[in-house]
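#struct-help
A.M.: can someone run this one for me? Single chain, 226 residues.
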Amino acid sequence: MEIVAAINRTKYDVFRWRYELSIPKKLVMAVGMAGVVGLLAQVRFYLPWTAIPITGQTFVVLLAGVLLGRWWGGASLALYAGIGAAGVPWFAPQAGMAIFSNGGIGVLTGASGGYLIGFILATLFLGYFTDKHIRSRSFVSMLGLMLFANFVLIYVPGLIWLGLWLNMVAGTPATFTALLGMGAIPFIAGDITKAVAAAAIARGVTPKTAYNGEVDKDKWANWRIP
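D.P.: on it. Structure tokens below:
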């Protein structure tokens, strides 16, 4: 019991510490998280029928808001997009691109640009619930939130932009079914797996007590959080 209490206290102290950090220190952490996303973007492979690669970065995206909070998690992904657009080669390049061409505004406006916008939305969403609702830190709640973030907040802008890109840039209008085949269906199984793993980690590392005045801070003691 003492070990469990010590672990719970450590989790509380860590999240309270990151909540109270100064803005410069939070900025450093956001840049560091952006670097991790960029690193896992290089873990990728391509399918022959789509320019959108399968990467490991979504896993970090789902955890960024949990670990950094509602604003700085989103800031980390905004920095990732902005620094990559400025030329740092840490995006996942589209099929057919040279190995060192995975940076610059051209990638941001390419086939996968909408997913990058979705990354920011998803991280803001997950960070908000993590910071404001203790109940969201259970495995079941977090998995539901992560699946929503992945399949709605990331996929919807991603597919909308992919459709526009195919129509305006590639000159190949695509039906809704074709878009799903290129930008959603091939990634569903992997994204569910990553969401389950990310939710399990979030459940393990987040405190189950209030650290910043959560809206349900007076209710958590009566809950069993699986």
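A.M.: thanks! The beta strands are 44-45, 54-55.
D.P.: also worth noting: The longest strand covers residues 44-45.
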